[in-house]
């Protein structure tokens, strides 16, 4: 699902804070890399399971201050897709999606019964709603621009998500097949100190959005 999330995202727009420049493209793992032995598509699948299985009342999507934001999963810090302000362990990779930059399709939402159907759903809807003609995104990491960020678009292999009661997609609770296509980034292990990620989105259909992640990497 994407359109439901857009309504949530409108409530989570964050003002921009500028921190010292330090990184850029070198700050993230290249799209062909396999951080900690797992490729980006599989990591994105794990991230979607993590995010979707958190009930709506505590989910970082609509509660960036949630204690579940910036949670470490399998050695990677998962940052909520609408921003974060938290301490993270130095020397640890951190992963994030962009709140307006993905399409998730699941059986629970009535969008397909097989992984093949769900992959087709996610691929087609991403192409329709988040293509380069209508969706424009600028990412700054510690003040330096991440160039050609559409290289970091991935299709997840297919996951089983246990949708909780009061889940973020308003889907039928219980286990469900799911596939997501979207932007997904994994930061290289962070040096101690303050880091910031700023994302500015201009969507020709739904408007403009800004997201900020402010991370204090501590030893």
Topology readout:
Blueprint (H helix, E strand, L loop, with lengths): L2 H8 L29 H13 L18 E3 L2 E4 L4 E6 L4 E13 L8 H15 L5 E7 L2 E2 L7 E3 L3 E5 L10 E14 L5 E11 L3 E12 L1
Key terms:
219 residues; alpha+beta; 6-stranded mixed β-sheet; 3 helices; 11 strands; 16% helix
Largest sheet: 6 strands, mixed
The class by helix and strand makeup works out as: alpha+beta
| Average residue-wise pLDDT | 91
Count of separate structural domains: 1
Number of helices: 3
The N- to C-terminal Cα distance equals 37 Å
* Number of beta-strand segments: 11
Counting copies of identical and different chains, the oligomeric state is single chain
Q: Could you give the order of the helices and strands?
A: HHEEEEHEEEEEEE
The helix content is: 10-25%
Radius of gyration from CA coordinates: 16 Å
% residues in beta strands: 35-45%
Poorly predicted segments: 10-23
The dominant shape is globular
């Amino acid at each position: 699902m994407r359109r439901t999330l857009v309504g949530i995202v409108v409530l989570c727009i964050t003002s921009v804070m500028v921190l010292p420049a330090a990184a850029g493209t070198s700050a993230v793992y290249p799209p062909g890399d396999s951080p900690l032995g797992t490729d980006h598509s599989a990591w994105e699948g794990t991230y979607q399971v993590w995010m979707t299985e958190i009930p709506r009342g505590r989910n970082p999507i609509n509660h960036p201050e949630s204690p579940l934001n910036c949670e470490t999963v399998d050695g990677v810090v998962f940052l909520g897709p609408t921003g974060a302000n938290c301490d993270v362990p130095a020397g640890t990779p951190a992963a994030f999606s962009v709140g307006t930059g993905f399409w998730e399709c699941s059986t629970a939402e009535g969008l397909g019964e097989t992984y093949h159907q769900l992959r087709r759903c996610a691929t087609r809807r991403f192409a329709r709603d988040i293509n380069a003609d209508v969706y424009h995104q600028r990412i700054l990491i510690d003040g330096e621009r991440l160039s050609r960020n559409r290289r970091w678009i991935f299709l997840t292999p297919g996951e089983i998500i246990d949708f909780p009661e009061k889940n973020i997609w308003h889907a039928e609770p219980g286990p469900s097949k799911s596939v997501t296509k979207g932007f997904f980034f994994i930061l290289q292990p962070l040096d101690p100190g303050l880091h910031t990620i700023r994302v500015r989105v201009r969507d020709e259909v739904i408007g403009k959005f800004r997201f900020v992640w402010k991370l204090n990497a501590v030893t």
